[in-house]
Amino acid sequence: MTTPEQRKNNRRMGLTLASIAVIFFIGFIVRMVWFSGR
């Protein structure tokens, strides 16, 4: 069984990893748009 504290930490870790993935994805799209415009 997971304690509420572990669950909170897991959710924070998941949100951190998800935000990092979103930042990389946005950076990739911006780079594709930037280099396709040249």
The structure class reads: mainly alpha
Report strand %. under 5%
Helical content class = over 70%
Radius of gyration: 16 Å
Order of helices and strands: H
Distance between the termini: 55 Å
What sort of overall outline do the alpha carbons produce when their principal axes are compared?
A: rod-shaped
E-strand count: 0
Low-confidence stretches: none
- How many helices? 1
Keywords: Membrane, Transmembrane, Transmembrane helix
Organism: Variovorax boronicumulans
Transmembrane segments: 12-34
Protein name: Cytochrome C oxidase assembly protein
Structural features, described:
The protein has one helix and no strands. The protein is mostly helical. It is rod-shaped and about 55 Å long. The mean pLDDT is 94.
Which helices and strands appear, and what pairs or packs with what?
Layout: H1 4-36
InterPro entries: CytC_ox_assmbl_put (IPR047811)
Keywords: Membrane, Transmembrane, Transmembrane helix
Protein name: Cytochrome C oxidase assembly protein
Structural key phrases:
38 residues, mainly alpha, 1 helix, rod-shaped
Explain briefly what this protein structure is.
Helices cover 87% and strands 0% of the residues. With 38 residues, it is mainly α. The mean pLDDT is 94.
